[in-house]
Amino acid sequence: MFKKIIILYMTFVFNLLSLPAIAQELHAVDLQPWKIGAEIFVNSKLFESDFGDIGGGLYATDDPGIDVNTEKGAFTPGNWLRFHPVGQLLFWNGTEWSQQVPNGERIEVIDAHGNIISYSVDGVSSIPATIDKVDSEGAVHTHVDFSIFDASGALGGSIGAYRIELRLFESKPDSDISVSIAPSPVAIVFNRGLEHEKFESAVSAAADLEDNSIFVAETGTLNIQRVKALGSYYQAKLKHLGDNKFELVDVKEIKTKE
User: Fold this and answer.
1) What is the rounded CA–CA span in Å between residue 246 and residue 243?
2) Residue 5, C-beta contacts closer than 8 angstroms, at least 6 positions apart
3) What residues have CB less than 8 Å from 177, skipping those under 6 apart?
4) Residue burial 58-85, b: 16+ Cβ < 10 Å; e: rest
């Protein structure tokens, strides 16, 4: 009986090790973009990270990772996967997301070229970041480093949650011109010393911040994340026609907890 159990266990382990590499590399917590035409899609608009993780220590982390889902749509080999920093740094004060931080905190990102991308309550860096070069399979699987600093410029941050946004785009090497772009940004919420339940409250509240409208100048589209009409909620996409005029090109009803 025990011999059969051992054989079954070894067979199970062998089958796991024999799975295709793509099945092992994709992680649900990672940002997983894919491309169709000139538009970039993502697996979620909100990601969680922790400045207290084992790898990064109290004030740094390299999560979430960035892992292209080539099965849904590969990028162009040799191009760069990049992002624009968006908006400003927000802080969860225990009851709401605020545009004020307790001690001058800022979050910095180091990109593939060693550039420092900064998020503060005053805004974000003007330069876009380079995540990595797209490989021959049209994929990118990498991590970038996020760190939090206090007003003195030292690693450190008040206890709470912090939120940043970034918008993915693809460019040719040594070019800031996008050849594909995500229509809306993704948000990352970082935990800095909060208990799990309190952090999840911050994450839940951060999800409500996605109810906004985003204009993508490169494509001339206005994406309305949520609008209420006739008792229901909708997502809508409009095309800019010039002279402050827009044409409705797509609309769909969305479910809401309200």
Assistant:
1) 9
2) none
3) 171
4) ebbbbbbbbbbbbeebbbeeebbbbbbb
Within the chain, strands assigned E span 34-36, 39-41, 46-50, 60-61, 66-67, 80-92, 97-98, 106-110, 116-120, 123-124, 129-133, 141-142, 145-149, 160-171, 178-181, 186-192, 213-216, 221-229, 232-242, 245-254
Residue 171 structure tokens: 């460019």
Would you state the structure tokens that stand for residue 147, as one six-digit string? 């760190």
This prediction's pTM: 0.74
Please tell me the distance from the alpha carbon of residue 17 to that of residue 87, in angstroms, as a whole number. Answer: 43
Three-class secondary structure of residue 156 per DSSP: coil
Confidence class for position 25, pLDDT limits 50, 70, 90? very low
* Tens-place pLDDT, residues 81-140: 999 999 999 999 998 899 999 999 999 999 999 999 999 999 999 999 999 999 999 999
CA-atom Rg of the chain in angstroms: 21
Residues near 51 by beta carbon (within 8 Å), at least 6 away in sequence: 57, 58, 59, 60, 61, 146, 148, 157, 190, 191, 192, 193
Chain centroid to CA 254: 22
Q: Is residue 13 within 8 Å of 157, Cβ to Cβ?
A: no
Quick one: tokens of 67? 């892992």
DSSP β-bridge partners for residue 40: 35
